[in-house]
Amino acid sequence: MKTAIIYYSKHGTTERVAHLIGEKLSPELEYISLKEFHNPDIQGYDRIILGTSIYAGYPGRLMSKFCNKNRAQLEQKIIALFICGMNDTQEVEQLKKAFPEYLHSNAVAEAILGGEFLFDKMNFIEKFITRKISKVVCSVSNLRYDAITVFLDKMNNIRK
Fold first, then answer.
1. Are 114 and 147 in contact, with CB atoms under 8 Å apart?
2. What is the pTM of this model?
3. Which GO terms label this protein's molecular function in UniProt (predicted)?
């Protein structure tokens, strides 16, 4: 089964998680960054895993545009969805807002996989806002490796 992990990552956490997922899936796998390829051709893939980072409560615009532009093709694929973010109190709502309803209703797996504050990759304004809102003053990782394992189990049990 040919798989594409299509992701949007601003500072690299979602990309890192995409690779953690991909390491445990079939060898017929490609990683596609929406930062580099705004509208990749997905025709040749059986399974699409979509992942996006959440910033200030919202998913990356490039992921939303991609999902809207490719609806007809995405509805024909095996779909899995994940988000990376640091707001534990609103994460369920953020997952819901991150992708269109048609993807949620067809997804074989959905996951909230934690996140990171990477101060060395943030600009001054991002650091200031992060410190002010989250009260975090240095880089911190809160990736959920157990949730990644559960997500992978669901993915590995799906056959087209």
1. yes
2. 0.90
3. electron transfer activity; FMN binding; menaquinone-dependent protoporphyrinogen oxidase activity
